[in-house]
Amino acid sequence: GRNGVVAVSMTVTTTRDRGRVVRTGGVRKVEEHNVRHGEVPGMSAWRYAGPELDDGEKPAVVYFALTAGQSLGLDPFNGLTREVVGDRIGGEGDSAGVRVFSMTLPFHGSMEQNEIAFRNWVMSYENGSDLVSEYCDRALLGIQELIRRGWIDPKRLGIAGLSRGALIASLIAAREQNVKAVLGFAPVTSLLALREFQQVENREGRDQLARLDLLHHSRDLASRSVRFYMGNRDARVGTRNAFNFIEQLAEDGFSQGHRSPRAELLMYPSVGMDGHGTPPKVFRDGAALAPWTDSLGQEVISESLAPPSSNLDPLKSNSSHYDNIFLSSKNDNW
């Protein structure tokens, strides 16, 4: 409304302070914010923002939301990208020298195509094709190639996603040991919990979808830092589903010998359609506090991470402290 709040929702997008909402053919579009992003040579599905690739190995975040270009450059879906790298490729303004990479999600393209992407996902599973697992295979190979080419520092690699992208990010992290931290905004934790996928009747397809439930992958993620941000009444993907996963993740971490499991769920007052929006302050907090524990799983609370004025309130943190956290020798999670 009038208060300038921007909320990201995968079904309805509203924006006031950055970019401009455009309605065309009944579908809301958002004009691109000035976050520049470039092509990754030889990897057509991938794009990046941040320091030039010629600058060599850098800390990196792999972020999934919509298409690669939209995830990096389209306001408000690129909220994390804006907070991490600023508004340009290369030169001054790139926070802590961090790159953000992204790969286009299946059946995503124009905003009209994004609106019906889930219909195509459903059709794939009706036909017994495990679309998401196949996509994760390709994304995993892509990340390994980015590391091989010397564009990602494997010791400082994080992965993040918005809504369906958070599911993708988590599934990839469960298989890629170089990923130190996982960050999810309004995360999908089970496709079968969504109304679209409840329509799948093909038994093989339903079995495939069931195997994608993050509860089945918690043991593989239990040694990582995982932080999910969720509205306190998200009726689209289910606040309870996120809670159940984080709780299971903590139990699995404890059973693996981690006395203080690095699994966090931060809730905020729901915004947007079905409570599935993500406010800008949540992206800021995620960018500032993503590497919040060290490699031994001990909580790192320092002046650079949590200044006294913040009172350790995660939604009042100052993203300007990101540089010190990300490059700290005491913190290798990202």
A few lines on this structure:
About 30% of the residues lie in helices and about 15% in strands. By secondary structure, it is α/β, with parallel strands linked by helices.
Task: Spell out the key features of this protein.
single chain, two-stranded antiparallel ribbon, eight-stranded mixed β-sheet, disordered C terminus
Polypeptide structure, described:
It is a single chain. This protein has 334 residues and is of the alpha/beta class. Helix content is 31%, strand content 16%. The protein has helices at residues 68-73, 79-85, 111-115, 117-126, 131-148, 164-173, 203-211, 218-221, 239-255, 280-289, 322-327; strands spanning 21-24, 27-30, 38-40, 43-49, 60-64, 99-103, 157-162, 179-185, 225-231, 263-268. Strands 3-4-6-5-7-8-9-10 form an 8-stranded mixed beta sheet, with helices on both faces. A two-stranded antiparallel ribbon has the order 1-2. Helix 9 (239-255) links the parallel strand 9 (225-231) and strand 10. Helix 2 packs across helix 10 (280-289). The longest helix is centred in the middle third of the chain and has 18 residues, at 131-148. The two termini are 36 Å apart. The relative contact order is 0.13.
